[in-house]
Amino acid sequence: MEKNYLELLKERAKKSRVYKKHQFIGLMIAQILNDEKHKSLYIKLAKKHNSSHLLGIAKDVSERKNIENKGAYFMKVLIKTHPNILKN
């Protein structure tokens, strides 16, 4: 019985649980930028700021071919266009 329960927990952990719009937007940004490691940062940004604007910047960055670290470039562009965005 205990083994089945552990297997059930492992299966549950694999499934995504997105309950709010900002969580979905943040995860989309992380996927667009291929930066799953910082998905919590993108969720936080999507919660506090204009999600369509953030998605626009992420899509623009992802289309650029010569950028190695798209997540870092996204943050650089974001801070340049909105200098106070991380101070909240």
Coarse structural class: mainly alpha
Determine the strand fraction and express it as a percent band: under 5%
The end-to-end span amounts to 48 Å
Number of helices: 5
Mean pLDDT across all amino acids: 88
Major sheet characteristics: none
**What is the global morphology?**
elongated
- Please give the radius of gyration in angstroms: 16 Å
Whole-number count of domains: 1
Low-confidence stretches: none
Q: How many distinct beta strands?
A: 0
Instruction: Tell me roughly what share of residues is in helical segments.
Output: 55-70%
Order of helices and strands: HHHHH
Q: Keywords, please?
A:
single chain, 88 residues, mainly alpha, 5 helices, 0% strand, elongated
Characterise the protein shown here.
The chain is an all-alpha fold. The chain has one domain (2-81). It contains five helices and no strands. Helix 2 packs parallel to helix 4. The model has no long low-confidence stretch (mean pLDDT 88).
Task: List the topology elements.
Elements: H1 2-14, H2 21-32, H3 39-48, H4 51-63, H5 70-81
Summarize the structure.
The protein is mainly α and 88 residues long. The chain is 68% helix and 0% strand.
